[in-house]
């Protein structure tokens, strides 16, 4: 095998490890939501209190994202990702020993700190090692981890919690997932990748990023996408148990929603790259997949609240298809706009604004459920937010090409 083929194989292995880390990330962050009905009953929590616990993760997650983006652009991105991974796995283990609302709150805050490094690190690694026409597939392979984690967590978690309770699940999950660090230290990417071909360039400040209209479009678009996502994995289990009268073991079927999103993500990521290589512009391709998927997801969720149990399941699958379409494009758009010198910072800032949805969404939803006594308006609000997000991607985000930050661009790219 020649040097180029060895490099290509190594980079695909890196993608698999990053996807696996994101899968673990979403199992860890969504497990409390899955255990929500059990924890609510055991500790006598109201829907509003449960909403606060769901949102607590995002308090620190959002707060540390800008710092995480700065760190991965400045220091060794591989080691920063490993440190964050260890912190969030430890928080998962300790959750199994929680004894009340305050303990859950503190550990959710710690989980948010650890997981804040993930997306800035992924973006920095991809933009350093993959050219534009490969990033749709590369991002979508990593993004499999999001719905994949929700699917695995829902299938396995619901069954195990139904049989053994929620405490053993958290303890075993945290210890087992720490094993990911072993292959990461063995096979993490080394060298500068595409940056090795570039001359010294001006590294833009966060203030410079905030001056870009497209940046604000991407912030708003991610906020709305996250609002939908947090609603799905925070409240769907409770909705199915309380309003559709599903048993906890039957809640595992919602994992098919995330599974179909995991399947659609790499397919649409690959199709988007093929479309671009055939001559279409990244603007047309990525915006088409992004907005179409977000609209489909939001409208499918809206219809769930008035459907019967069987039709609800079909509509949830449709929402999964829509989420898979949009999930494959989010960070490819950001990486194209930011370029290699600003990808970590832009991703961090975008995720900061986007994850206010995780802070506000669960609390708003919990309050609406308490006030109205049902889920109708919670679903309706989520659908409206999704439609607004599609408009952000279309009209606020501009042409998808790298922002001219003021320095020379790379003269060559590395084909992988």
Written account of the structure:
- The protein is mainly alpha-helical and 416 residues long.
- It has a single domain, classed as Growth Hormone, Chain: A (Up-down Bundle), CATH 1.20.1250.
- The chain contains 20 helices and no strands.
- It has helices at residues 3-34, 36-43, 47-74, 77-95, 101-115, 118-129, 132-143, 145-164, 166-177, 181-187, 206-210, 213-242, 248-251, 255-277, 282-304, 309-327, 330-338, 343-354, 356-372, 376-396.
- α14 packs parallel to α16 (309-327) and α15 packs antiparallel against α20 (376-396).
- It is globular, with a radius of gyration of 20 Å.
- Residues 196-200 and 408-416 have low confidence and may be disordered.
Helical run tally = 20
Shape: globular
State the end-to-end distance. 14 Å
Low-confidence parts lasting 5 or more residues at pLDDT below 50? 196-200, 408-416
CATH superfamily: MFS general substrate transporter like domains
- Total count of strands: 0
CATH topology: Growth Hormone, Chain: A
* Largest sheet geometry: none
**Mean model confidence by pLDDT:** 83
In percent, how helical is the residue content?
A: over 70%
What's the CATH architecture?
Up-down Bundle
CATH class reads Mainly Alpha
Radius of gyration: 20 Å
| Strand residue content | under 5%
Structural class computed from helices and strand pairing: mainly alpha
Number of domains: 1
How would you spell out the order of helices and strands? HHHHHHHHHHHHHHHHHHHH
């Amino acid at each position: 095998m020649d040097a180029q083929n060895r490099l290509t194989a190594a980079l695909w292995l890196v993608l698999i490890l990053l996807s696996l880390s994101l899968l673990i990330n979403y199992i860890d962050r969504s497990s409390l939501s899955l255990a929500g009905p059990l924890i609510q009953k055991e500790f006598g929590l109201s829907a509003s209190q449960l909403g606060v616990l769901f949102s607590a993760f995002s308090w620190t997650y959002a707060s540390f994202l800008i710092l995480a983006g700065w760190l991965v652009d400045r220091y060794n991105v591989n080691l920063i990702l490993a440190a964050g991974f260890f912190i969030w796995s430890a928080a998962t283990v300790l959750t199994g020993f929680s004894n009340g609302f305050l303990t859950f709150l503190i550990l959710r805050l710690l989980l948010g700190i650890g997981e804040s490094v993930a997306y800035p690190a992924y973006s920095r690694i991809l933009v350093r090692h993959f050219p534009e026409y490969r990033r749709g597939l590369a991002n979508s392979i990593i993004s499999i981890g999001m719905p994949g984690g929700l699917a695995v967590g829902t299938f396995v978690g619901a069954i195990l919690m139904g049989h053994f309770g929620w405490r053993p699940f958290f303890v075993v999950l945290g210890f087992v997932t720490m094993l990911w660090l072993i292959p990461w230290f063995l096979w993490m990417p080394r060298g500068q990748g595409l940056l090795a071909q570039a001359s010294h360039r001006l590294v833009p400040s966060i203030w410079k990023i905030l001056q870009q209209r497209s940046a604000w479009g991407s912030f708003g678009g991610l906020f709305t996408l996250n609002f939908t996502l947090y609603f799905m994995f925070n409240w769907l289990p409770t909705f199915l148990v309380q309003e559709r009268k599903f048993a906890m073991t039957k809640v595992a079927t919602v994992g098919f929603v995330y599974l179909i999103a995991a399947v659609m993500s790499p397919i649409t990521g690959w199709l988007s790259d093929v479309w671009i290589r055939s001559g279409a512009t990244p603007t047309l391709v990525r915006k088409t997949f992004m907005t179409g998927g977000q609209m489909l997801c939001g409208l499918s969720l809206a219809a769930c609240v008035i459907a019967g149990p069987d039709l609800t399941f079909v509509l949830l699958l449709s929402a999964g298809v829509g989420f898979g379409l949009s999930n494959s494009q989010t960070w490819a758009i950001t990486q194209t706009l930011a370029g290699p010198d600003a990808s970590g910072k832009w991703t961090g800032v975008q995720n900061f604004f986007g994850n206010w949805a995780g802070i506000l969404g669960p609390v708003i939803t919990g309050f609406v459920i308490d006030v109205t006594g049902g889920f109708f308006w919670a679903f309706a609000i989520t659908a409206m937010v999704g439609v607004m997000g599609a408009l952000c991607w279309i009209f606020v985000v501009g042409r998808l090409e790298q922002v001219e930050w003021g320095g020379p661009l790379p003269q060559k790219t590395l084909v992988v």
